[in-house]
Automatic annotation (TrEMBL):
Residues 8-74 form the ATPase F1/V1/A1 complex alpha/beta subunit N-terminal domain. PROSITE patterns: ATPASE_ALPHA_BETA. Signal peptide: none annotated. This is V-type ATP synthase beta chain. It comes from Dolosigranulum pigrum ATCC 51524. Residues 355-453 form the ATP synthase A/B type C-terminal domain.
Length: 458
């Protein structure tokens, strides 16, 4: 039998203290009835003896302490799931908001999920094609990986997120593939962009979309990524689908976490973020993976904007420790009009070597990737030298590398938001650019492979 309490002693921001409670559990769902009959939801955040700290999802405005009734529901925050979720749009709390009928659930799942036994994990080693050359060819994404995108204010990470959501696929198989898209703390303009793009391109037909808006209560930002992950795990591990989950913007999530921590009067860590930020982010990122005996997979691309473009800021810094690499967007490339402005030199996919090569992509994938990285780095150095000493200081070889770098950025990186390249097209374009350099400079590719693939002049 549910107990009802009228012992609210304090409300601070989104947090409410209820005294004299019994049998209350951490993360338990709470129903709050105001003096005017309005009902709001909350969740138990902390228990101290007979006191429960409750975070209120819809905000604490208008609460009258003596007349407010609190009921603890005995269950955690959950999400109704079924295969009919695909093609539907939900708000940040998992409620249908696309104007369609309510979902008929197959089951209801705790959004906090369950820890995956490391012994049950399979090593990620199967290629996912995003259609973006700088990712597929040079920083390859594999099934079960978590590969974040580090952006900054004003850079087109929204366009990149939408492009990957449209184009991502598992090649060479007829296995089912779905995209779960979670927008956390975005503006109405951004939400309209994503929804229009998904509907116009047909991407919505294979997507599950969760949208938390900037004017929604900040506390919802804590729940939205977990809602999306719960939907992804259901489709992957119970329906054997390969699921790519894209979350933007994790910085908004971390800022909401900091706001709640401040309301709880916790001792702040770096930049005011709670000391458990690393652990909290890990509870999200580590839900990606593949499991023994299950065909499906969950692959994550979390997107975050680096405050002040500082990669040492706690959010990107801790994210980099947990995830397997990073894709970094460049202000310099954006100013040149290059789209998407992915800077390949600081970008890295730590699992790329496991998902490429003969039988997965192509035998010439790794050699061309390594050669392009080396040539682009040398070309950038030559351009810096020319800026200091003038072009007259460059050797003929240096000029070739400068020409390669310019064409690489203009033709390879600058593919636009609506160009979908297969991995074969990306590798062939790489070969076409490498012929700019003298053959003797291509030291990272074996002679027999050069004979087989290097385009002949004329």
């Amino acid at each position: 039998m549910l107990k009802e309490y009228k012992t609210v002693s304090e409300v601070v921001g989104p947090l409410m203290t209820v005294e004299g409670v019994e049998g209350v559990k951490f993360d338990e769902l709470v129903e709050i009835e105001l003096q005017n009959g309005e009902r709001r939801q909350g969740q138990v955040l902390e228990i101290e003896g007979d006191k429960a700290i409750v975070q209120i999802f819809e905000g604490s405005e208008g609460i009258n302490l003596p007349d407010t009734k609190v009921r603890f529901l005995g269950r955690p925050l959950s999400l109704d799931v079924s295969e009919d979720m695909i093609g539907r749009t939900f708000d940040g709390m998992g409620r249908v908001n696309d104007g369609g009928p309510d979902l008929i659930p197959e089951k209801t799942l705790d959004i906090n999920g369950k820890a995956i036994n490391p012994v049950a994990r399979m090593y990620p080693d199967e290629f996912i094609q995003t259609g973006v050359s700088t990712i597929d060819h040079l920083n390859t994404l594999v099934r079960g990986q978590k590969l974040p995108v580090f952006s900054a204010s004003g850079l087109p990470h929204e366009e990149l997120a939408a492009q990957i959501a449209r184009q991502a696929q598992v090649v060479g198989t007829d296995e089912e593939f779905a995209v779960v898209f979670a927008a956390v703390g975005i503006t109405h303009e951004e939400a309209e962009f994503f929804m229009n793009d998904f509907k116009e391109t047909g991407a919505i037909d294979r997507s599950v979309v969760f949208i938390n808006l900037a004017d929604d209560p900040a506390i919802e930002r804590i729940a939205t990524p977990r809602m999306a992950l719960t939907a992804a795990e259901y489709l992957a591990f119970e329906k054997d689908m390969h699921v790519l989950i894209i979350t933007t913007d994790m910085t908004n999530y971390a800022n909401a976490l900091r706001e709640i921590s401040a309301a709880r009067r916790e001792v702040p860590g770096r930049r005011g973020y709670p000391g458990y930020l690393y652990t909290n982010l890990a509870t999200l990122y580590e839900r990606a993976g593949r499991l023994e005996g299950i065909n499906g997979s969950v692959t994550q691309i979390p997107i975050l904007t680096m405050p002040e473009e500082d990669i040492t800021h706690p959010i990107p810094d801790l994210t980099g420790y947990i995830t397997e690499g990073q894709i970094i967007l460049s202000r310099e490339l954006e100013n040149k009009g290059i789209e998407p402005p992915i800077d390949i030199l600081p970008s890295l996919s730590r699992l790329k070597d496991e998902g490429i090569g003969e039988g997965k992509t192509r035998e010439d994938h790794a050699p061309t990737m390594n050669q392009i990285f080396a040539a682009y780095a040398q070309g950038k150095e030559a351009k810096e030298l020319a800026n200091v000493l003038g072009e007259a200081a460059l050797s003929e070889s240096d000029k070739k590398y400068v020409a390669f770098t310019d064409r690489f950025e203009e033709e390879y990186v600058n593919q636009g938001s609506y160009t979908n390249r297969s991995i074969d097209e990306s590798i062939e374009l790489g070969w076409d650019l490498l012929k700019i350099l003298p053959r003797e400079e291509l030291k990272r590719i074996k002679d027999e492979m050069l004979d087989k693939y290097l385009p002949k002049e004329g």
